[in-house]
Amino acid sequence: MAPKVLSIVLAGGEGKRLMPLTADRAKPGVPFGGIYRMIDFVLSNLANAGYLKIVVLTQYKSHSLDRHITKTWRMSTLLGNYVAPVPAQQRLGPRWFAGSADAIYQSFNLINDEKPDYVIVFGADHIYRMDPAQMVADHIASGAGVTVAGIRQPLSAADQFGVIEVGPDGRQIRAFREKPKDAVGLPDAPDEIYASMGNYVFTTDLLCEVIAEDAKNAESKHDMGGSIIPMLVERGLANVYDFRENEVPGSTDRDIGYWRDVGTLDSFYDAHMDLIDIHPVFNLYNFEWPIYTDYRPWPPAKFVHGWEGRVGRAVGSMVSPGVVISGSLVENSVVSPNVKVHSWATVSRSVLMEGVEIGRNAVVRNAILDKNVKVPEGAQIGVDLDRDRERFTVSANGIVVIGKGQKVDP
Ligand code: ADQ
């Protein structure tokens, strides 16, 4: 008999570092890659592995995320499968989730209803392909209480991750520190650390026991990476699962092992640029492990001659349905549905979300334009960064970000 597995996807994060993209939506609900939302990646990984009992714990500005999950991921309950968004319900008192561990604590009823042998707890804001069934098999074979997915990352980013130190067998976690400021590199790679991917597999009884214990601790932040994993490491019950061991069907030499935490504007932008190379660093065209999503029945994208007969073109770009590129040039960009680009405009190295409109003669460079942003005729974005800083958000690497509904002056 296959073990019973329940998947919990943590989707309540606020995503402050992605402002203004998270001004009125939860981070996992942020559009990504033209037609997807960030949460589609984790849900597709679980679904492709055959894990179809999934609860998504939401909290912060969850309306559009909720709507997306309900619309895209609704499925027949005939076989007992579901992908259900579950908001904080205040079952245990008048308070929201204090942290990711508290979100699980307040949702114990879901675990009790399902009575799984193992619980997968995955984050919702990463871009990657992974077969979670291989991690579950590793967890069962090792007999660990919790297995944490691990990946090498640059030492300079250690303060954004849970940093793992493994024992001599290369599997048991000897130390786990959440976002340390003083991490040191690995013995064989001084510029790298071993980072937690924020993805865990738990043996159910232990998960419930340790979360209930943490709930009684008034000092705790009730956070998976900050409280729960360190507790289990101290008890010698935590193992690491090396992401390099995960084999996803259809991966190319180039995108094998790809994983991006898109928690900052620059990493969000860079992950888009990873999609549009001729040999993409992350290949969305892997039909053996599809990334699922849903969008309206837009007509096909159209490229037409514009004003004074100029040819409308897009090169090195991904262009979604419903787009019209008229007498203008779009290069090295990711274009979402229903975007209009008018004559003599140029858009380069940019991410345009649904409904964006670029007026005649406008120039847009190195920018992220959120839904429905209208760039008026002749306006310039990403050309004079000092001016852009006065009116928009400009990331550390100089990417100009214009939020949903923000007005752009000519
Ligand atoms: P972070 O992503 O910084 O680090 P956190 O903010 O707790 O940790 O978010 C983890 C996941 O939980 C996200 O998917 C988030 O949306 C969700 N979440 C946060 N608060 C929640 C709440 N109150 N209710 C429901 N869901 C909530 C984590 C780990 C690190 C690891 C990185 C990898 O803590 O150890 O290295 O992920 O990116």
From TrEMBL:
What is the protein's name according to its record?
A: Glucose-1-phosphate adenylyltransferase
Biological process (GO) annotations held by this record are: glycogen biosynthetic process
Binding-site residues, alpha-D-glucose 1-phosphate: G162, E178, K179, S196
Report the protein's function: Involved in the biosynthesis of ADP-glucose, a building block required for the elongation reactions to produce glycogen. Catalyzes the reaction between ATP and alpha-D-glucose 1-phosphate (G1P) to produce pyrophosphate and ADP-Glc.
**GO MF, one example:** ATP binding
NCBIfam families, per the entry: glgC, PRK00725.1, PRK00844.1
By sequence similarity, the record places it as follows: Belongs to the bacterial/plant glucose-1-phosphate adenylyltransferase family.
Q: Which UniProt keywords apply?
A: ATP-binding, Carbohydrate metabolism, Glycogen biosynthesis, Glycogen metabolism, Nucleotide-binding, Nucleotidyltransferase, Transferase
Query: What residue stretches are annotated with the Nucleotidyl transferase domain?
Result: 7-276
What is the protein's quaternary organization?
Homotetramer.
Organism in which the protein naturally occurs = Virgisporangium ochraceum
> What Gene3D superfamilies does this protein map onto?
Hexapeptide repeat proteins (2.160.10.10), Spore Coat Polysaccharide Biosynthesis Protein SpsA, Chain A (3.90.550.10)
Which pathway does the protein contribute to? Glycan biosynthesis; glycogen biosynthesis
Q: What is its EC number?
A: 2.7.7.27
